[in-house]
Amino acid sequence: MNTSWRSASLVATAAAVLALTTACGQESAPQSTGSQNVGATAAVGGYSPTDPGNGYGADSTTAPSPAGGQSAGQLAVAENAKLGKIVTDSAGFTLYRFDQDTAEPPKSSCDGDCAKTWPPVPADGASVASGIDQSLLGEVTRSDGTKQLTIAGWPMYRYVKDAKAGDTNGEGVKGTWFATAPTGKKAAAALPGLSVRNDLKLGRIVVDKNGMTVYRFLKDKAWPDPVSNCTGACLEKWPVVAPVSANDTKGVQKKGLMGFTRPDGAKQMTINCWPIYTFSGDKAPGDTNGQGVGGTWYAVSPDGKPVGAPQ
Question: CA 57, CA 282: separation in Å to the nearest integer?
């Protein structure tokens, strides 16, 4: 490893979800996440820059000499205050992904001047320790015949303006470059179990820990105890939100914020004692495809009211 990439080791941390019991409910339980396998190789096309910046965040002046030919060594997971868990190389330098690349199949669209600013990370010599699924590592054949490291299919790069271990100066450049999470997705700071975001159409609505919109069912009841009338096949489209601790929420009204046990034995969260759900038709954070479905499903305001529901 070239000494210009100074060594550092950063350790990933994990967060625990706490149980909650309040006035109109009972208890709660945590949730878990999974991982995926990806392909390893694919041919890529060339790239001819047409403007000084190339749309890739490259400088109009000559970029510094990159260290892109250096192996990543043993990948690590670092905890960043703004981005959450990010992947670094063995020297602690952040690895990035590019929105104009593809993961299925893996393909790099960063060549020429772009690759001077964003040196591709070689596949050779890369390994993982804890925090990253070994099966997510792969490689893609670049236009020059070299093998580039991929994570979950996404080609990996360093950024020449990261001067020291822990730097994330490449985050958000040109709106297309992002630090990489251990899953291969874009890194993002972990959200609380429940929080509030501003939706352009709906205003302030509640989202879960994954940023997915939370909904209420008008046929449910809140008093004197929470009652969910979404059962059986309904739950396949409208999964329940598992209970979270009141301390693991932000911006949500605390009154009636509690978990209860459903008749089927599952645990479900409520806001103002109203049962809450996500929607299987929402595929990404920010989706609100469940809004108004059947005239009975609505996004939830921070005080637990159904947003946009008929009065």
Answer: 31
pLDDT tens for the 311 residues of the chain, in order:
443 443 333 333 333 333 344 456 443 333 333 333 333 333 333 323 223 334 445 443 333 333 557 899 999 999 988 888 999 999 999 999 999 999 999 999 999 999 999 999 999 999 997 889 999 999 999 999 999 999 999 999 999 999 999 999 999 898 899 999 999 999 877 789 999 999 999 999 999 988 899 999 999 999 999 999 999 999 999 999 999 999 999 999 999 999 999 999 999 999 999 999 999 999 878 899 999 999 999 999 999 999 999 98
Phi, psi of 199 (to 5 degrees): -95, 135
Burial of 275 (0-12, 13-18, 19+ CB in 10 A): buried
CB 42 within 8 A of CB 105: yes
The answer to whether 123 and 149 have CB atoms below 8 angstroms apart is: yes
Find out whether the peptide bond into 105 is cis, omega within 30 degrees of 0: yes
Compute the distance between CA of residue 31 and CA of residue 54 in angstroms, rounded to an integer: 43
Q: Is the dihedral of CA 97, 103, 109, 115 positive or negative?
A: positive
Q: How far apart are CA 279 and CA 229, in angstroms?
A: 15
d(CA 243, CA 20): 7
Alpha-carbon distance 184 to 200, whole Å?
28
The Cα 49–Cα 56 span in angstroms is 10
